Prior knowledge:
Number of strands: 11
Shape: elongated
CATH class of the largest domain: Alpha Beta
Low-confidence stretches: none
Radius of gyration: 21 Å
Strand order of the largest sheet: 3-8-7-4-5-6
CATH architecture of the largest domain: 3-Layer(aba) Sandwich
Mean pLDDT: 94
Strand content: 15-25%
Amino acid sequence: MKVKTILVSQPAPKAEQSPYFDLMDKQKVKIDFRSFIHVEGESARDVRNQKIDFLNFTAVIFTSRNAVDNYFRLAEEMRISIPDSMKYFCLSEAVAFYLQKYVVYRKRKIYVGTRTFDELLPLIKKHKSEKYLLPCSDKVKPSMLLKLKNLDIEWERVILFKTVVSDLSDLESVFYDVLVFFSPSGIKSLFENFPGFIQNDTRIAVFGNTTVKAAEDAGLKIDIAAPSKETPSMTMALEKYIKEVNK
């Protein structure tokens, strides 16, 4: 069956240039974007209940923009003045650059990984004397926590925001040829919103091993999977599939 419509379970790209827009133009398909999950910040009371004091730490590990936003939001709500001496270890240049929204970049000690958490670990290990705080969501990869534990450093995790299922009830009578997922939370959202969902002829596209497992556990048939050597991105995997079925 040909592919004419695709729903991507993420917000629409903000940039004018996006591989998804190129895919629409080249393959003449309609692509809609909709977040299946969203983030809700915890309250100052929630943080206090975790018995975490931001000022007990000398360094912060930021793995996302959400972590940055909620760390500084809660510091303000709790009337905590983060000292200039605080060190920041950022997962990527994008996260480090976003940090400038809250701190004067040139006046802070900021350490930046290249892309993955594994690539940030040597920088953290190099500064073993620091006491680290990991601001994160309620959904965090167990492997990340295990890797920090194995570093033999002093650190604590604090949950500052939650990943919540979005209301998709307005999509109940809308059907797409392909549904695209990037996390187990997206799969969970599909079935929480539509408990009686039956795949039928809908093609399922998934990104990452954990999403593959969640889809399979939910009884979904996976038609498109990324990344792979041949198709490292989701848009490349979609284009390859569309070319094959839309002949």
